[in-house]
Specification:
The chain is α+β, with helices and mostly antiparallel strands. It folds into two domains: about 35-100, Alpha-Beta Complex (Type Iii Antifreeze Protein Isoform Hplc 12); about 115-240, no CATH class. The chain is about 35% helix and about 25% strand. The protein has seven helices and ten strands. The strands form three sheets. Strands 5, 6, 7, 8, 9 and 10 form a six-stranded antiparallel beta sheet that branches. The termini are far apart.
Length: about 260
């Protein structure tokens, strides 16, 4: 009986001590953690997906640190100059997962130009002219032009045998690969391509704009796949563009020389 009373006494004393520890030790620490303030970055106005983030879109505020996500960015310096991976709305906090150091793929294809090449868009005047919506960025295509000129000819310019597709854009202004990533849009009728954006030289860009006015441009699929093989097609086109043209006077001189040789 004495042992039972002693055990109960010990348990009672231990309970009292535990209560005191919770009340005067853990509770103040918990309250301090709840009331602690930390500085975080908040969005002042909406930032669109792919947008380069500038300081004018951001503000710093103090908020309670309790239960705050660990990846919330706390300084503007860690955000300014980066790109938004998704839409970030007014008063949202910015987490590391929403940021990209590099431009997004859908917006990055115009960022590697060094001034030697050009990007030009041409209109797809019929569904068939754009390969029935099956073209993708990176594809190599040849350009044909139907109903060209007064004689309504179909021509295949040697200067446009191998051209790389940068983007396929729908009438909404969205590139089609971006459009298909939008699950809401997939539930609706798919937007058909309206234009192709092509990587070309300055002379090719001039030729394409003339051809669009004088005829109907058709893209003929050539290749999709390995980057090394893509570059082989582009190098072949470069050789064609750099090949010297044979002038009529030069042809005549060759013929005259040949006749003199045969006479001797």
């Amino acid at each position: 009986m004495k042992n039972i009373i002693r055990n109960r006494t010990i348990i009672g004393i231990a309970s009292i001590l535990l209560s005191l520890i919770i009340c005067f030790g853990l509770t103040p620490l918990f309250n301090e953690a709840v009331s602690a303030k930390v500085t975080v970055v908040r969005v002042k106005s909406e930032i669109e997906k792919g947008e380069l983030i500038t300081e004018k879109k951001l503000q710093t505020i103090e908020v309670g640190g309790y239960n705050l996500a660990s990846d919330v960015v706390k300084t503007k310096a860690d955000i300014v100059g980066k790109y938004a991976k998704s839409n970030i709305y007014k008063n949202d906090y910015i987490s590391v997962s929403k940021l990209s150091d590099e431009p997004l793929a859908n917006y990055g294809y115009l960022n590697d130009f060094n001034g030697e090449e050009r990007a030009v868009s041409v209109t797809i005047k019929s569904f068939a002219a754009g390969l029935s919506g099956k073209l993708e960025p990176g594809d190599i295509v040849s350009i044909l032009v139907s109903d060209y000129g007064e004689l309504k000819e179909t021509i295949s310019p040697v200067e446009l045998q191998y051209v790389q597709v940068l983007a396929v854009t729908a009438g909404t202004g969205l590139d089609t690969d971006e459009y298909e990533k939008n699950t809401e849009s997939i539930e609706k009728d798919k937007e058909l391509p309206s234009t192709l954006t092509l990587r070309v030289s300055a002379d090719q860009a001039k030729l394409l704009t003339e051809l669009e006015v004088k005829g109907k441009i058709h893209a003929v699929f050539v290749y999709r796949g390995n980057k090394d093989n893509v570059n082989k097609f582009l190098e072949e086109q470069k050789k064609i563009l750099e090949a010297p043209e044979v002038k009529p006077d030069e042809d005549q001189e060759v013929d005259d020389t040949r006749e003199e040789s045969e006479g001797v």
